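Recall from the previous lesson that a structure prediction takes nothing but the amino acid sequence as input. Here we apply that procedure to Iron chelate uptake ABC transporter family permease subunit from Salmonirosea aquatica. The sequence below is the only information supplied.
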Amino acid sequence: MSVETMAPKTAEPVPTRVVFGPVRNRWLYPLLVVLLFVTTVVSIGVGAVWISPDEVLAILGNQVGLRLPADEMKTSIMTVIRLPRVCLGLLIGSGIAVAGAAMQGLFRNPLADPGLIGISSGAMLAAVAMIVLKTALFDQMLGLLGYYALALASFVGACLTSLLVYRLARVAGRSVVTTMLLAGIAINALAGALTGLLTSMATDEQLRTITFWTLGSLGGATWTTVLALLPFVGVVLVGLPRLGGALNGLALGESQAQMLGVDLVHLKRWVIILAALSVGASVAVAGLIGFVGLVTPHLIRLVAGADHRRVLVGSALGGATVLTAADALARTVVAPAELPIGVLTALLGAPVFLWLLIGRRNAA
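The prediction returns the following tokens.
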């Protein structure tokens, strides 16, 4: 392991980079990019109307100005229905996975994910409250924003929960990771109880909406939804990988990280803010989608090693691939019906995670 210390020229919060050994598996990024491209093309093509990879590429080429022969019906299906859905899956998968990798680095715990500190449960509580409680404020929001009122409430709930956990973890002017973890567990339990209470008060119609939100789905994807989510996830995909060097320092322990010049206050604050931004916005448009932010960083870490700079970028690519593939399965495995994508990611992710835990135990 080597340590590179750079004198800060500006007010950057993290002037230190910690590098864990030589770069492992230089083929990882090219492989992930190719796998993501293939998964995206296949996911766009599968469905009630099959669109071959050649046709997919031809239609995409026409969208950027090329004049290639393409079927008009398939063009409409792809551009109006499937392409927005796949783009939404790419954004949500990458955002959740990179947030999960950052949370694991912050807590120095491979079992950590964004739901651990109540981000997902806070978003869910706000969405359920919006559905069940027919107050004047909610009615006004529904009248002004329509469908997006529910998404906005969910996003605000995620941000407020994250802020509450962060404030509760402040001890003597600085945030303590252990206290943050315990506060997150307590807030998770409280939000879950309140969500259950509100669910018990819901009507049959409201229960159907709550069920959709709980199980997760990309079925409501439109270009408006994609463009609304893009700035939030884009900021996260740019911001979190820049904190990889500081997370490497934190892996040595808080005392050692401070000796290396890592600004722990800024690091913890920005990891929490960006994770809440990513997960809150994703839950707001697609509901709860589990295990992507937990399993994907594990798999990337097995190949890329412990360097968070590589793990964060690899998790973004891997998460986009995993969720896009899962959505393609959800649309086709029980066609013409559709499986909730949150259920499918749990069915696929839980066995993989158990396999990882068993392998870790046997290696110990």
